[in-house]
UniProtKB/TrEMBL annotation:
Residues 17-107 form the YdhG-like domain. InterPro entries: YdhG-like. The lineage of its organism: Bacteria, Pseudomonadati, Bacteroidota, Cytophagia, Cytophagales. This is DUF1801 domain-containing protein.
Length: 129
């Protein structure tokens, strides 16, 4: 795992640190080919330069975000923002369902919108996969 992500995880409070550690391990296991780094101050995994999944600390939870998640057709993922992102929020490590997470990671590889070129296309998203 990227050392900056490890530092990010370790900087969290106890419960949040556990959530972040589980998420980073499962994401790395589920997307071993993905580049991972701190992007806009949060851990994010990329495939071919396109952001796929990441997590961030919010006031009272850890938010797991899939950039193309609205296209996954998954009831536990909630719409986030005006594009195609979807999220789930965790307040304890026990809430993480690794089976769901694995399925979402597989879908994130197969279903992608082109966020890498969204600025070049003036805010228009195109489906890659």
């Amino acid at each position: 795992m990227n050392k900056d992500i490890q530092t990010y995880n370790e900087s969290q409070s106890n419960g949040d640190r556990d959530i972040c550690t589980i998420l980073s391990e499962e994401i790395t296991r589920g997307l071993p080919e993905a580049e991972n780094k701190i992007w806009h101050a949060h851990p994010v995994w990329f495939l071919d330069g396109n952001p796929i999944v990441g997590y961030s600390k919010l006031k009272n939870c850890i938010r797991l975000l899939f950039w193309s998640g609205q296209s996954f057709d998954e009831e536990h993922l909630q719409k986030e923002g005006k594009f195609k992102a979807a999220e789930i929020r965790y307040t304890s490590p026990e809430q993480i369902d690794k089976k769901d997470l694995s399925r979402w990671l597989n879908k994130s590889r197969e279903i992608q919108w082109d966020y890498k070129n969204i600025v070049k296309r003036k805010g228009v998203l195109e489906r890659l996969k």
